[in-house]
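hey so i finally got around to running the thing on that chain from the lab meeting. sorry it took forever, my laptop kept dying and i had to restart like 3 times. anyway pasting the input first so we r on the same page abt which one it is
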Amino acid sequence: MTPFRIDESFARWGELLDLILASFAYMDGRIDPPSSAIRLTTESLMEKAKAEIAYAVENAGRLVGCIFLRAETDCLYVGKLAVLPSAQGTGIGRRLLAVAEETALDLGLPALRLETRIELVGNHATFAAWGFDKTAEKSHPGFSRVTFIEMKKVLAG
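ok and heres what got predicted. didnt touch it at all, straight out
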């Protein structure tokens, strides 16, 4: 289960979309505003993969995980980290984050950054255990309360 780069030869967009939607489904009714994942289409995923750096993991011929990365000025943004519910707890998320760390270092970026919803305290704990620290509390446009937190992991160069 080695992560591979999603590039122009990738053709499994429907399966990738299904993976992301399945991974994010537990958030339905738990977070407000709803996840941007529900607005994804195969076409928007293709565009996202062109604009960002994307990796996927396959097991027994089935996509089981993915991650999308975007270079920022001082860090690499980690987005749409998704692992099929049936494959969670098997190290796929850690493997994908290791690829993110390698990518950041290759790009000369000293940190990873991600955002996670305020309601998903289990995610906060998981990311903290993986070396991320909370750096900010923020709100989506139109919200007066905190809706998500930002977390960063400083990388050893």
